[in-house]
Specification:
22% helix, four-stranded antiparallel sheet, five-stranded antiparallel sheet, alpha+beta
């Protein structure tokens, strides 16, 4: 999915809530400028990130865990905000949390009702990012 010049690496949304990671361009030979956007009917947030090829590899591994129903925590190296996707919460749908660990300390969490095939859709986004030239 594209929005302006941005290309989405992650797009998790339902009729009320959305979490997206949008790649904005290249920062260096092995780094991508990106942002995480989280929105709900209650509040909205946006944070800048810098993604490396290791981050993309880690996201691919996280997708493997998500495909079998395991919760994940992605980007735990303190360079970027952490993104958690939890199953088995008080909600009947996954709870997605974005935490600005190193910066403001702000945490925002939204439950998102995801459609069947959502993990494969995210794999498609990842593959498009890996094939693009910025």
């Amino acid at each position: 999915m594209r929005e302006g010049n941005a290309v989405e690496l992650i797009h998790l949304a339902d009729h009320e809530n959305r979490v997206a990671v949008r790649v904005l361009g290249r920062r260096g030979p092995d780094e991508l400028d990106a942002e995480v956007v989280i929105s709900s009917t209650f509040c909205n947030g946006r944070l800048s990130l810098c993604l490396s090829s290791k981050d993309l590899d880690d996201w691919a591994k996280a997708l493997d865990d998500l495909a079998v129903g395991r919760s994940i925590c992605w980007m735990t190296d303190l360079r970027n905000p952490e993104i958690n996707i939890e199953f088995n919460t008080q909600f009947s749908v996954p709870l997605i949390t974005v935490e600005d660990v190193q910066g403001s300390g702000t945490v925002m969490a939204v439950p998102v009702e995801l459609p069947d095939g959502w993990v494969d859709e995210q794999r498609g986004h990842l593959e498009r990012i890996r094939q693009m030239e910025f």
